[in-house]
């Protein structure tokens, strides 16, 4: 894939993307988490890149949102979707949904939505989602007791890139390897030429080492899984709590994670724990055993009546023998018992196996002595034996777990990706549910929008208080109506439904048909009369639309305030004529509908939002515009109300002026 062909992707970003494992997949699926793994790319930037890639793939190059107000409505809708996400991933991923006239893209999102709106999740699943984050690659794994060695500069470069966790050393020959072996516990020579060399120390020749990184650095998968343990556990929980199909055996992955400590070492192995404790407690255990023997012996001596015949005593004294020979002669059994006790104490407290116990027994010799003394040499041997067995076991466990986890890596990534994508789906599902949405009929080419029971999610009233609106547009129309009757809100509703439909998303209505438009021009109400310059640029803007607006949906709110009413009506009539001629679809909200209709050279349709009457001085409005009907205005209704209440000629005369 030519990354630089993606809109918004320059040389630097293209190089960063190329560093990813599978950038094509990430771009195609809008996987902002994977894209943001590329150096220097944030999740926000990743969303923009993914959007560019989707545009390119579907030929969706034109900007659908042609005006500021259209862009604002899109952003408000996007926020409503984003508010319903739990993860930052889903928030950013939703930014890859945009309105477009490209049918294939709309179809693609509609397929996604069909599955998404079936999704359900309870509070517990949403809570589990909180802890799901894109997986992180720990960058600080350094292994200092092992190194790679080569004689070749190119191989050196290759090795530093393939295995950055280890130092790579350049040597001249086998002697260089021997020197390295003095500084590192293990040296791995990666050149074929070293095959068969015999060097002192742990020097291994492995020309294919760079292709087997897990064997060389089991710390890599261990560090990866240790760093991501909580995220993976959360993703496992999400799968268990929802109907997501897991990509792997969840129990097996969980068990493997349980065997891993946060620092990347293996946990939960009883034998390794036994050996580690034995090494740590050895000195203390020997001291205790020694005391046991001495206490025992002291007690025996104290309780013993030793009778020595005079001749024997004489011979002992003459030989210069010490009390030890007396001990050996008279208390041999007691001594043996005391030493036995000490040995059993040592073996028992350190929980030694039979081989280790044989060495441990030598800690206390059979020759009687008082006090009983330990044999330092035997203790050293026992310590060495325990340490070697412990380290060997730790290495083996590490390797086994590393290779098991390395095999699980792709599944683990898929697991987290699925959980994060679920959050995107759930946000769409909840949006659809909260606003009672339906999938619109999309794709006709008659320039029509028909909304049945539409409820604008952008209104300033709670959704349950929104009056449903029916409105159908096609061709060019004026929308008249009472003050605060809901004209602007109707334009907002048409814009929102059109934008959502062009995003491929469900719309807040009982039913809707939205034809395909090239773009949406929505002009918000102009605030106050414009000065000459601003007036000129507004007219110019509409001139562009009037000539090139075929296929556009044009929504304009009260353009009349750009200049004085008489001139405004003429200008609006002229714009409508041009739009009508080139086949655009347009709705212009105006209080001058009557004047514009009279000025226009074609039969412009006028729809109206009308008050059904006044109840307690409050307007009762039918929010759905009535077709081909110039709505009565608010002042007229007030006069009508006064005329009804007071039977005076003044009010009747005023009322007649409106007829
Ligand atoms: N469908 C609806 N359901 C409930 N309330 C609505 C609806 N439409 C509009 N409203 C309420 O009426 C208020 C006025 O609506 P809006 O601004 O759209 O009227 P307008 O006809 O454009 O007013 P103006 O003539 O002043 O420009 C809104 O702020 C909202 O509170």
Describe this protein's structure.
It is a single chain. The protein is of the alpha/beta class and 659 residues long. The protein has four domains: 1-58, Orthogonal Bundle (DNA polymerase, domain 1), CATH 1.10.150; 117-141 and 217-425, no CATH class; 146-216; 441-657, 3-Layer(aba) Sandwich (Rossmann fold), CATH 3.40.50.300. Helix content is 53%, strand content 11%. The protein has helices at residues 11-18, 23-29, 32-35, 43-58, 68-82, 88-94, 103-116, 123-130, 153-162, 174-183, 213-216, 219-227, 229-241, 250-258, 270-303, 310-318, 323-330, 332-350, 354-361, 376-434, 487-503, 532-548, 565-581, 593-599, 634-645, 649-657; strands spanning 146-150, 167-170, 186-189, 203-205, 441-442, 449-454, 469-473, 476-481, 511-514, 519-523, 552-557, 585-589, 605-615, 618-626. The strands form three sheets. Strands 10-11-12-8-13-14 form a six-stranded mixed β-sheet. The chain has a four-stranded parallel β-sheet with strand order 2-1-3-4, sandwiched between helices. Helix 4 runs parallel beside helix 6 (88-94) and helix 15 (270-303) runs antiparallel to helix 18 (332-350). The chain is elongated. The two termini are 69 Å apart. 40% of the residues are buried. The mean pLDDT is 89.
